[in-house]
Every structure is written in C-alpha cells, then in structure tokens.
Amino acid sequence: MPIIPTPELSVIVIAIIAAVVLYILLKSVKKLIINTVMGLVVLIGANIVFGLGIAYSWIVFLICAIGGVFGALLIILLNYLGIAF
C-alpha cells in the first residue's frame, strides 16, 4: 500500500473543502437570483397592470435585488401611500 506524502494529502483536503464551499455559495447565489428576478417581475407586472408610474432607478432595482418579492411589495406600498417612488 503506497503512502501518500503530506503535501499531496493537504492539497486533496483543501480541494475537497473548496468544492464544498463553492457548492454552498452557488446554491445560495441561485436562490438570491431567483428571488431578485421574482421581485422585479412583481414590480414590473404591478407597474404595467395598475399603472403605478414607478420609475425604474438603481434604488428600486437594489431594493428588489435585496428584498425580492417583499422589496417589490414595499416599493408598491410606499408608492401607493405617496411616500416614495
């Protein structure tokens, strides 16, 4: 039975750890992208259907990117109440 030298063993362990970390990050990024797209779809749909007149600015996109559907609903609510957007 061959003995694996220490440098090769540490490279294998580091590669496995990196693969697991990348898998977890990509899985969470996928959920974030889906949440962002759903928020933008809700906002654009509500803007078209109800004629809200919400201007698409970087603040609106940032709120939808972070908050997703809840961010879009917050923007719609603030627009409806006349507070912002």
Structure description:
This protein has helices spanning 6-50, 58-67, 69-80. It has 85 residues and is mainly alpha-helical. α1 (6-50) runs parallel beside α3. The chain is built from 3 helices and no strands. The longest helix is centred in the N-terminal third of the chain and has 45 residues, at 6-50. The N and C termini lie far apart (70 Å). The mean pLDDT is 85.
Number of strands: 0
Number of helices: 3
Work out the radius of gyration. Answer: 22 Å
* Backbone structural class: mainly alpha
* Oligomeric status: single chain
Q: Give the helix level as a range of percent.
A: over 70%
Overall shape: it is rod-shaped
Largest sheet report: none
The residue-averaged pLDDT reads 85
Q: How many angstroms does the end-to-end distance come to?
A: 70 Å
Order of helical and strand elements: HHH
Beta percentage is under 5%
Low-confidence stretches: none
